[in-house]
Protein 1
Amino acid sequence: MKRAMSESRETTPRAAPLKAPAQQTEEALASLRQHWQSEPLAEALNTLDATELGPEGQRWSRAVGLHFPTPASAIRGVQPLAGNEYADGLRAPSAAVAMPSMSSALLVAPAPPCGHGVFAMRPLQAGQRLGEYTGEARRYDLWCEEIKARKVARRGAESSASPFILEELYAAWAGIGGGEGVVIDAFAKGNAMRFINCSCQPNCSFKNVGAGFEKHGRLLVVTSRDIEAFEQLSVDYGWYFDPATLAEVRAEATKAYNEDLSHLQALSKSRASVSASSSVRILQDVLQEVPGPTEFLRRYVDRAQLTRLVESKKSFSQAKSYLEIPEALWHFYEVLGADRVGISCRCALDKSLNATGLCSGIIGRPLQATHLGREKQ
Ligand SMILES: C[S@@+](CC[C@H](N)C(=O)[O-])C[C@H]1O[C@@H](n2cnc3c(N)ncnc32)[C@H](O)[C@@H]1O
């Protein structure tokens, strides 16, 4: 990956000793495991052995001011950054901004199905400043171009203008910065805050703490409500509001629906087993109340509505846009579209990340409860 020349200043990793000795780390992990004992999370925590929490993870944590070692599998290829690096001609804000040191309550650990996450190991109060979100401060326009080039290289020339690929979800918007906007990109370099997952019921937010007109380049993670011990920290990534991304999600939703037409027709006629399309098989299972492991897409189908659609013997026809997908199916296909783009949300599959079970299905999309119905494109 070609990166823009950096005008960054060198950051000096803090040389503080790792504060939690092995025994304290083991105790912390045991209590986390105990707390989430019947969840997939507890099983994932069992994978953390001495190698995972060995010297590599200890060095990384020390460099970013974390109390506990960070699992080696989480930080492969990720450079620890105690403070931002400034690239693309951006300069560090000149006015000194006092930043809190990293909270000693934080522990990075596996958090299935979202990779690794950040856990609060003791209760935290609303409004608490937990530390800085560090990474490379990049000009938004240049960073976007780079992401798009990578996307075209990976997905082909017909890729849309939407910048979504995995890397993008590590970049946090840091204000307009007097120009085209600034993001803090923590994909390749950062600290523990880069592991905070997205939740539809977030418990933290980013606060911009730049000074004067240089209101960019410094982001604080602040709790937005009281947090209980062993909860995961979460924020709302908010990228749903990127128009190009939304257009791509909906184009993929329409494509997926049109690809399924003949199978949907079979579904409406006989409810016989549907073979070729896995998405229609999910609808079939919902209709027939087939029990089984929770397939996350099932969450976005209302059984009564789907039954009415099927019983109406409607014939399914090509949709030109997602607005033409039948009412009972649009949410299901919108989430499927988001999954194809790479931004489907699975927060409610992890109780530590979202205990309410309410999830919009798309990373950064508002919950249906506050966002009823389909929007116009
Ligand atoms: C900023 S990182 C968070 C740390 C990441 N879990 C890791 O282990 O490196 C963003 C990535 O985490 C995952 N992620 C975060 N929140 C998610 C969510 N609500 N649903 C699904 N995946 C999520 C996605 O893979 C996303 O690209």
Note: Residues 74, 114-117, 166, 169-170, 194-195, 197-198, 345-347, 363 surround S-adenosylmethionine (CB under 6 Å).
Protein 2
Amino acid sequence: MANVDIRIRKVEALATPDELYTQFPVDEATSDSIHQTRQTVNDIIQGRDRRLLAIVGPCSLHDPVAALDYAKKLKTLSRDIEDEMFVVMRTYFEKPRTVGGWKGLILDPKMDGSYDIGGGIALARSLLLEIVKLGLPVGCEVLDPIIPQYIDELMSWSSIGARTTESQIHRNLASGLSVAVGFKNSTSGDLVTAVNAIKSAYQPASFIGMDGKGASAIFRTTGNDCCHLILRGGDQSPNYYEDDVESARLLLEKEGLEPAIIVDCSHSNSRKNYERQKRVLRSIIDQVCWGEKAIRGFMLESNLLPGCQKIPDDLANLKYGVSVTDACIGWDETQRILVHACELLRKARLEGGSVQPL
Ligand SMILES: O=C[C@H](O)[C@H](O)COP(=O)(O)O
Ligand SMILES: C=C(OP(=O)(O)O)C(=O)O
């Protein structure tokens, strides 16, 4: 075996998905509630529920206490706006980096480069469980193809990021995920990769993975009919404007796909300036009020407090409730703009279904 694994420094044992299921089991009531919230998400994506899917939460979760604190506030708010929006908390544990940086709580829960993945995966599952037990559905980006085995059961929505939408591995994975999957347009702004991804994930696939007992296995999927497009803007410009949404809708329709679009208010749509997220949201709400039926929801990067912080060498200096990845809007702003957006939607509905453009 002299020529094997020459660049592998060490191989360590990791708990199997089944072991974590036993350690952090989902009770029947929670499981029923997840079944229900998944169905609601699917109904919105497929146009059977007219409400907007609001995927709202931190860019990444790094502090379970702050995450739960945030989740409780979001749950309360979600009840006040449920007539117009169905809220799913953004619970992102895996961060795809442009070059390098902290890769999220699952890979590096101690945020010190020690990569205690066993601890991270257990922490993510237990935190997700606490959040869903509040009755708040959660959505994650799926990056590593094995990780869904540990947490898929708890999610109500998921996304494939701009950097991985073109990857066959991720398209195959999406074809077998239990939830609706949003594919982001590429970082360059290209939509075709995401549209191809939706078509690809619709098909059944076969691939190699790891089963609940940790054994290599062949997975054969049914295909996923709840995939959709996420407009996140591109290197050159945002793509949330009316003409962009219309072009995206026409492209989906031309391909015979459900015209289901989620607009990401952050990333290149906000030109990475968190303060601009509210103008993206305002534009989306206007478009919906003017009758654009393809917009099925939006994503908002929001945290307890606004902005972001670098991970300090001494973690005792971490500020509570502030993002360690992309800058987010704070809770007060989140609450204000979501409540206002709902008021606008209600008003438009009262005035006759939808407001007509000038
Ligand atoms: O959403 C988070 C980031 O935009 C994404 O992970 C890329 O981050 P980076 O460009 O800072 O690496
Ligand atoms: C990484 C993300 O987005 P994107 O893939 O659009 O860059 C994200 O939403 O956290």
Note: The longest helix spans residues 331-350.
